[in-house]
Amino acid sequence: MSLLIVEGARKSGKSYLISQQTVLPVFKFDFNSNFSHWDFDKHGTDIHWFGLGKEIMLHELDAAGHLPTLLVDRGILTNSVWGVFQRRITEEQAKRDLIKFNDRGLFKNTEILLIEGQFKEERKKDIWDEDDKRREEERSLFLSFSSLLRSLGVTVNVFRNDFDIASVERFNEVIREFASK
């Protein structure tokens, strides 16, 4: 079927926008619970490879026709960005991984929607809150890796979230258009 992967920096409103749509089923890997349960090191390489394995399996299941059309809350781009952002892997390694992912045909029937915007209020969400102060670094990595994927022929669209009802309505229209393909 098809995957629409919603990506973007922390506090860009991804999960909120996704929660406001009812057109597509949503898959959100419970990263924080798995991280805690398996006792990963925040900066260790194991968590990167764990995430990459999950991404490979998700996309292989999709390619084999075992999944319905899904809206995915964060995916391969987040794994790559956070691998570099947390210094688990180098930027060169992340780019090689994305190229290999593409070479294996794992982006077939996949589109990425990169959410741009920033929620201005402080929040206490999870163990990653301290990284919010490095948001521009995170955003820059998302833009860089999105550019790489576009150069490989992967569909990556940018969606501007202004944190208003008009953004929710525009997001829902994007989802309806994707679902109708």
Reconstruct the topology from this structure.
Layout: E1 3-7, H1 14-19, E2 26-27, H2 31-37, H3 45-63, E3 70-73, H4 76-85, H5 91-103, E4 110-116, H6 135-151, E5 155-160, H7 165-179
Parallel strand pairs: 1-3, 1-4, 2-3, 4-5
Helix pairs in contact: 3-4, 4-5, 4-6
Q: Would you give an account of this structure?
A:
- With 181 residues, this protein is α/β, with parallel strands linked by helices.
- The protein contains seven helices and five strands; from the N terminus they run βαβααβααβαβα.
- The protein has a five-stranded parallel β-sheet with strand order 2-3-1-4-5, sandwiched between helices.
- Helix 3 (45-63) packs antiparallel against helix 4 and helix 4 (76-85) crosses helix 6.
- The mean pLDDT is 91.
Structural class: alpha/beta
Shape assignment: globular
What is the residue-mean pLDDT, rounded to a whole number? 91
Q: Low-confidence segments, ≥5 residues, pLDDT <50?
A: none
Beta percentage is 5-15%
Query: Strand count, sense and closure of the main sheet?
Result: 5 strands, parallel
The CA-CA distance between the termini, in Å, is 10 Å
Q: What level of helicity do the residues show?
A: 40-55%
Along the chain, the helix and strand elements come as EHEHHEHHEHEH
Determine Rg (CA atoms, Å): 16 Å
Number of strands: 5
How do the strands of the widest beta sheet line up side by side? Answer: 2-3-1-4-5
The number of helical segments is: 7
